[in-house]
Amino acid sequence: MSGDFSAGGGLHLRLPATSANLGPGFDALGLAMSFYLTVDAIVSPDGEFAIQATGRDSDLCARLERNLILDTYREVVEGAGGTAVALHLLLHNEIPLGMGCGSSAAALLAGVLLANHFGGLGWTGYQAMEEACRREGHPDNVAACWLGGMTASAMKEDSGKSAVIAATFGQESTWGLMLALPSVGLATEKARALLPDSYSRIDAVTNVQHTALLVAAFAQQRGDLLRIAMGDRLHQPYRSEACPLLPLLLPLADRPGVLGVALSGAGPSVLIIYERGMSAEVRRAVAEIAGQVELIVADTSKGTSVVVT
């Protein structure tokens, strides 16, 4: 997925949903999941911006004002000194908005990739990812969206500009993924406002230990590590009140076939990792504990697909 995507013609993008943090990996770990935002873009034949959208929240995805994809596209092109030509977009969205599933990361990355292509910026895919990370403010979701699999990432200052260091693995994971979605979303800004300004040493050390175990679990496909490794002390305890499914579903980690449970991103959705073939049992367990909530079953995604048409 590296390379120059500034060639002429239309552009087809398929960007996966992502779950960040995965328990202790706050702002550092992300997991790409196999449901997507799909974008087909061409230069508008009539010189006017237009969006046709299907799927989840299609009315919000189709609006031209305050649209994160279009706003990002314009800002990146104009920031590079170019003129943003009008585009016609066909969108199909499978990613819930405001549910901790990386919808903003996918939209930001889509906007940057559109700017790179139609603005002729000549960036590599990795440079486009870095720009989207800077706009997001943290790299976990965007890096996972671009690279796929389970991604560890960090941002550092390089000559006054933020650069992203990222590594991905686990694309061939055999584990099943299930997201439990409440009926009401939670804005990331509100979720971040719930966090304290400082933490105790024991909480910080515990999270470092768990994060190391979590990376090892994905790298070696050690499901036996996940129940402990996905334990968190930095953000989940402070977000539980605003994410009522979390305290209900955390005990699922003790059920046979369930490997680990954590808040998905900033919430309010909850990610359940389970042994392949146990989907029906996990569904029944969720219904038993939390009632009838919406569930999305997914696999690990291999990342963003970019095709020049």
Describe the overall structure:
The chain has helices at 58-62, 68-79, 103-118, 125-136, 140-147, 188-193, 201-220, 226-229, 236-239, 245-249, 279-290, and strands at 11-21, 25-43, 50-55, 87-93, 150-158, 161-169, 176-181, 258-263, 270-274, 294-298, 305-308. The protein contains 11 helices and 11 strands. The chain starts with 10 loop residues before the first strand and ends with a strand. Helix 3 packs across helix 4, helix 3 packs across helix 5 (140-147) and helix 4 runs antiparallel to helix 5 (140-147). By secondary structure, it is an alpha+beta fold. It is 34% helix and 28% strand. Strands 1, 2, 3, 4, 5, 6 and 11 form a 7-stranded mixed β-sheet that branches. It has a 4-stranded antiparallel β-sheet with strand order 8-9-7-10. It has 2 domains: 11-170 and 301-308, Ribosomal Protein S5, domain 2 (2-Layer Sandwich); 176-298, 2-Layer Sandwich (Alpha-Beta Plaits).
Summarize the structure.
By secondary structure, this protein is of the alpha+beta class. It contains eleven helices and eleven strands.
Q: What are the salient characteristics of this protein?
A:
309 residues; alpha+beta; Ribosomal Protein S5, domain 2; Alpha-Beta Plaits; seven-stranded mixed β-sheet; globular
